Amino acid sequence: MRVTEIFHSLQGESTFAGLPCVFVRLTGCPLRCSWCDTEYAFYGGTERSIDSIVEEVRAYECPLVEVTGGEPLAQAECLPLLSRLCDHGFIVLLETSGALDTARVDARVRLIVDVKCPRSGMTNRMHWPNLERLRAQDEAKFVIADRVDYEWAKDVLNRFDLVRRCTVLFSPVFGVLEPQQLAEWILADRLPVRYQLQLHKFIWAPDTRGV
């Protein structure tokens, strides 16, 4: 399979934010979100065996692993990789766009589904049944650029009863929507969602790779 990078850092998002984590960033993505911050993962990468990836991850001696991209599910080998990591006892997170079917992902994996709001330009690529199978261990993330995105996200929350299904994360697009503005909208509407910022972009420069 093709891998862009493997690195050890602090988890910058999700309910695991702040914890040490090993990231396996796979190469390739069929989407082109307007606010994408990992375009360097669209192409290139290095061909790696699942064995070599697992060996490198184990060398960090860190219990938390996230498989991300790009869009990791765009590579068929992602599914056996996830299972192998689970077999080795890791807590495994899968960061996915929600555009590709998650039905065959190992049940031990914790899904983080990035629900594509209108300003992403990719709403029409969503595979909506993914939201219907989210469980308590999973998370749905909305990256919000403006009030239109916010109102749209609230509608999706209601349509899929997401707050009951799983943890819901609302995050402002970095450098586009003021963090305070999104916080005030959430508070005014009494939304039972978790507000998040991309922690790694405040620790390191926003365009730093491998963090």
Helices, strands, pairings?
Elements: E1 2-10, E2 20-26, E3 46-47, H1 50-59, E4 64-68, H2 78-87, E5 91-96, E6 110-115, H3 129-132, E7 139-144, H4 147-160, H5 162-165, E8 167-172, H6 179-188, E9 194-195, H7 200-203
Parallel strand pairs: 2-4, 4-5, 5-6, 6-7, 7-8, 8-9
Antiparallel strand pairs: 1-2, 1-3
What's this, in brief?
By secondary structure, the protein is an alpha/beta fold. It has a single domain (2-203), classed as Aldolase class I (TIM Barrel). 27% of the residues lie in helices and 23% in strands.
Describe the structure.
- There is one protein chain.
- The protein has 211 residues and is an alpha/beta fold.
- The protein has a single domain, classed as Alpha-Beta Barrel (TIM Barrel).
- The chain is 27% helix and 23% strand.
- It has 7 helices and 9 strands; from the N terminus they run βββαβαββαβααβαβα.
- The chain has helices spanning 50-59, 78-87, 129-132, 147-160, 162-165, 179-188, 200-203, and strands at residues 2-10, 20-26, 46-47, 64-68, 91-96, 110-115, 139-144, 167-172, 194-195.
- Strands 3-1-2-4-5-6-7-8-9 form a 9-stranded mixed beta sheet.
- Strand 6, helix 3 and strand 7 form a beta-alpha-beta unit.
- The longest helix is centred in the C-terminal third of the chain and has 14 residues, at 147-160.
- The mean pLDDT is 96.
CATH topology: TIM Barrel
Radius of gyration, rounded? 16 Å
Q: Which regions have little confidence, pLDDT < 50, spanning 5+ residues? A: none
CATH class: Alpha Beta
Query: What's the architecture, going by CATH?
Result: Alpha-Beta Barrel
Q: Compute the number of strand runs.
A: 9
General form: globular
Indicate the structural class. Answer: alpha/beta
User: What is the strand content?
Assistant: 15-25%
Mean pLDDT: 96
Q: What is the chain-wise order of helices and strands?
A: EEEHEHEEHEHHEHEH
| Biggest sheet character | 9 strands, mixed
Helix content: 25-40%
Q: What gap, in angstroms, lies between the N and C termini?
A: 22 Å
Q: Note the total helix count.
A: 7
| Sequence of strands across the biggest β-sheet | 3-1-2-4-5-6-7-8-9
